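Shipment paperwork, digital attachment
Item: protein structure file
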Amino acid sequence: MAGTPTHRGGPLSRPAELVLRLGPDSLSCGQARHAVRTFCYAHALPHLADDAELLTSELVTNAVQHTGTLITLVAICDDARLIVNVRDDGCGTAPSARVVAVDAESGRGLQLVDRIAGRWGTTPHGDGKSVWFRLP
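Attachment content:
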């Protein structure tokens, strides 16, 4: 299922919002990264684009790998801040950063989110959870 971004607001009207519905497949990560990067540039936040793209990729990857459900990504910018929320319809168990071996090829996504984001957290809901981060 291809993601379909919608934008509300524009470069001069704040807050602006991006809503993207993604399928539970490997293409979703690339679609989410591209949409969030474009959103940052369109709304005068190019200095946040690299970090936003990386953290979005980590959260969407986790949702695809661990839930296998549809994913809703919502990005909101207000002045100089960006908030990205990734919601899945899988289990409501909050994810947590885990300790991984030095030579492990995966498992560090939430560690990156914890180190780079200004704030981040999870919100359970009836049929899944949301994981969000704020920059800066």
